[in-house]
Amino acid sequence: PPEAESISATSKSKLLDNVDRSSQEDKLRDFLNYTKEFKLEVDHSANIAQIGLDRAFSRTNQERATWIGFYVNMALNTIALLSLRVEDDSERTYRNGTALNLSRVLLAVQLLTSGFVLVLYCVVRVPVIYYLALGKQLVARGIVEPFAFYRSTPADVIRAGLATLLDPRLLYHMVYFLVAAIGIKLGPHDGAFLNAFLLLDIIVKNSTTQDVILAVARPWKQIAMTLLLTVFVTYIFATYIFYQDGLLTNETDGNGCDTLLNCYFATSGAVVRAAESLGELISNNERKTLPLDLCYFLVFIVLLNIIFGIIIDTFSELRSEKADRVADRENVCFVCGLCKADFEKEADGSSGFDAHCQREHVVWNYVNYIMFIWCKDRDDDDGLDQFVRKCLETDNLAWLPIGQALRNEGTAAAEDPMEKVEVHVDKLETTVRDLNEASVRVSKKHSEMIQRDVRRISERLESFVTSINRGVTPAIAEAPAPAAPETPSTNAEMEERLGKLEQQSLATLEHLNRIFSVLEARSGAGAATTAADGGEGAPTAW
């Protein structure tokens, strides 16, 4: 649909990079969640286009503006690094006026850029984030219908609004703009310190730098407990040094162990500097200091290396996860989950997997179809669209071809012919069993029908015989007595009456034969019809 064309490249890249790839089902469920965000983004983009601001306020422009601000900040810090110096009176100045004036211009550009990014984010992304938060509130209340915002309550609206205001990216852009404003207030001389912090924007823009931060943030509990243990052990060393006579140096200027607090600070400083021993703190009596130095080396070196090891292991784990994501993206079909090795090469030598992903299971074709379902009226759905819509509303993956591919069906069957034979045998056994059951049902049904029809014919025969008997009895009663001689006229009348009765009987028998022929023909046709209908067809009506 035309609405799907307004999905930004940034949103598509976010889907491919951040979708949950722990399993095929989790991947597709997260994919459907992203399509809901696409729908909200498309609707909001249409609203912006209606007021004629779509060229300026778009997610693509927002992304470009953030990179422009980053480059401007890098230029500011480069100029400060090469030109900023301290005079004799401790005043910070630039080497020349050109560098100073250029820094002032770049500070103004940085403020304008950060402000524009903040406005763009509020106009382009904040409404989408609000409706996503509102949808989560509805799901928490058990309303799984997508985009049913008309069913929200005031409490849902308040919670969604608070979640939008506390959005991490919105808070980040607000802090960035505030730091840029303070920097231009302080000027190029004193604002260089704040501009240096804005270089951390690279963490938001690059996944590798994010992994560096996550390497420390993810195992924060283990690192915190190790640091706490280090603090306690440092205090134990400080008290031991403080209470042992002959170990202290003669320094009492606050850098030695004249107090237990100063002794603790001095010991902690030695730990932070990763000194090889406590020689700077205690006397040079090797006999007394050797055991202490050995304990210090064993304890603190081990503790510090444990902290470094936790960070390094976490970073390696994050790097492995990233490598797995790249491998899944390049070697596994996003839709069906089949691996690259499951596909044969094409006739031209190219990979069948690439042709499969480019022609059969194209991710964005599925996105377009889902957008088509959501953008059309529910009353216009045909059978397939109605089924897919219900699956989307109930988060059901039955409509997606998980583990199936048209290009791979023939290859899979050819690779295992015995499996193919077993499948056909199972199908034939099932068919024969169904036919037998249908035959039993048909035989039972039509035996009842034939018995009912025979009963009806017997009743008709009985009535017919009764009528014949009624016709023959008067004829016998009208015949002359045996003693009286028969006249030719009387015999002729009797023969005529008996001939009529014989003709009626033959006609009746012929009519009965035709009835039985029709009965057998209709019974055969009814059996065929009943078998075709699954054995539950209605009996043939006379």
Question: Could you characterize what this model shows?
Answer:
The protein is mainly alpha-helical and 542 residues long. Among the domains are: 112 residues; 110 residues. Helices cover 73% and strands 1% of the residues. Strands 1-2 form a two-stranded antiparallel sheet. Helix 17 packs antiparallel against helix 18. The two termini are 57 Å apart. The C terminus is likely disordered.
Key features of this structure:
542 residues; mainly alpha; two-stranded antiparallel ribbon; transmembrane; single chain
How much helical structure, as a percent, in the residues?
A: over 70%
Number of helices: 18
Structural class: mainly alpha
Amino-to-carboxy terminus distance:
57 Å
Q: Secondary-structure element order, as H and E? A: HHHEEHHHHHHHHHHHHHHH
Q: How would you state the average pLDDT, rounded?
A: 78
Q: How many beta-strand segments? A: 2
Shape: elongated
Computed Rg? 47 Å
Low-confidence residue ranges? 250-254, 472-489, 526-542
Major β-sheet annotation = 2 strands, antiparallel
Widest beta sheet: strand line-up: 1-2
Task: Tell me what portion of residues adopts beta-strand conformation.
Answer: under 5%
Main location: membrane
InterPro entries: Ion_trans_dom (IPR005821), Ryanodine_IP3_receptor (IPR015925)
Pfam family, one: Ion_trans
Keywords: Membrane, Transmembrane, Transmembrane helix
